[in-house]
Amino acid sequence: MKTPVVLITGALTGIGRATASAFATEGARVVVSGRHEEEGQRLVAELRELGAEAEFLRADVRREDDVRGLVDKTVARFGRLDAAVNNAGTEGTPGPVTEQSAETYNATFETNVLGTLLSMKHELRVMLAQGHGSIVNVSSTYGRTGAAGASVYAASKHAVEGLTKSAALEVAGRGVRVNAVAPGPIDTGMLNRFTGTDERKAGLVATVPLHRLGAPEEIAQTIVFLASNKAAFITGASFAADGGKTAG
Q: Is 153 annotated as catalytic?
């Protein structure tokens, strides 16, 4: 399909924004979503400058009515939904287990896990009916390992990995694929908030065999590949894009 219709949640910053630009450059029609209207319209203007048909739809992935409306409006605008990237996420409140609470747990899981679940539910509703589609969830290498000081975040990304594999098995053979990308340390605002200081950020870089942070654009290219027909035999997989961090 030369002009796929792609929906991206959490599209206004970081990996989501880079992914929107990457799809636009490939000629896709792109719907970007987030919670901030002004930033969303600025992004749409940039995507249109790249020659893409693009729309911004405001939605909060923690609210099912928002997610249902987001998917339905995408289909109403472009007639179908070929690929979806579920990128909306939060680092939550970093800190040891002993400092976590029901409130910090809920705040993280509502976005990272419930948001992914609701997004897949309504994306699959459309994709299964049309008989094709590809979903890419954005996880984390912390979804494969533990993470001192990021227990709730790591737990939420373990859940995303499980949701991805379960959904992939449920729809296998029905024309829809579901995969995940698990980034390592990527140079984004989220990473800056998580590390807090240049010293802690440098310490994290030191754990990466390639001796650098990843760029959002590098993750975006992995997502574009997984969403494309070039990855037609891949489903239920989680691709680590982490500079070798989980290899050892």
A: yes
